[in-house]
Write the structure tokens for this entry.
Amino acid sequence: MNQPIPTYQQLLRDSGLERIDAQVLLLHVCRQNRAWLIAHGDEMASAAHAAAFAALSARRRAGEPVAYLVGTREFYGREFAVSPAVLIPRPDTELLVELALELAPPAARVVDLGTGSGCIPVTLKLERPDLFVSAVDVSPDALAVAMDNARRLGASVQFHESDWYAALAGQCFDLIVSNPPYIDQHDPHLQQGDLRFEPRGALTDHGDGLSHLRAIVAAAPAHLVPGGWLLLEHGHDQGAACRTLLHEAGFAAVATRRDLGSNDRVSLGQLVRPDDCRA
Ligand code: GLN
């Protein structure tokens, strides 16, 4: 016997998902927005919509992140393409962007190390067209996603495949920003939620969580002009360690800023003494 055909609202209710996740997946399948759901929620779902929604709901129930299922995530008011080759952009990282926008002088040269989806450099360029923005990532698959985002959103950003500064020899910047993999390899969060599906190498250094931060700080003076800034995103318990690293590398005006959740999230410092980049 045929099952009665469910309405769109019934699909949502019976999905076994959190309502917001179910809505996002259903609207993705139907290529519609919330207003459409309010108007058409009581209509019979088409067989194609119901089948596609059932497939995505099953994957969500198995833990796959919504952002990977729909292929996009909003960051700083814009929609970025994401795939399992890149970390899903987090609201925490908007703090890094805001600080960079405050500190970058007119026409500054900015580089983002470990760019992933490219949400940082693309946002910086679109918010501040005067900036000269470049970005590197060690993963060619991540760079493909980042370049696609830059092209689609119309941001002119120079991308390089590079293990941190490897491809930047002799290049000088006014601002270096990075959201590197900073999670301790033993942190239980790696076994929970979305993180289980994200690229391991974008989350953890497979060590104490500080090794990439150390490498980025240590080599920054060779790539910063006098007066240039280094901005690092880090874990909520890594602020003191990052400030020590920055002091040891000769940075001044060292400070840590909190994110919207009141966690230490970004540490920064200004290079005062000239090193390899003389103005
Ligand atoms: N902020 C991310 C998290 O804790 C981690 C991002 C990173 O390692 N750079 O989920």
Q: What stands out?
A: The chain has two domains: 8-62, 85-271.
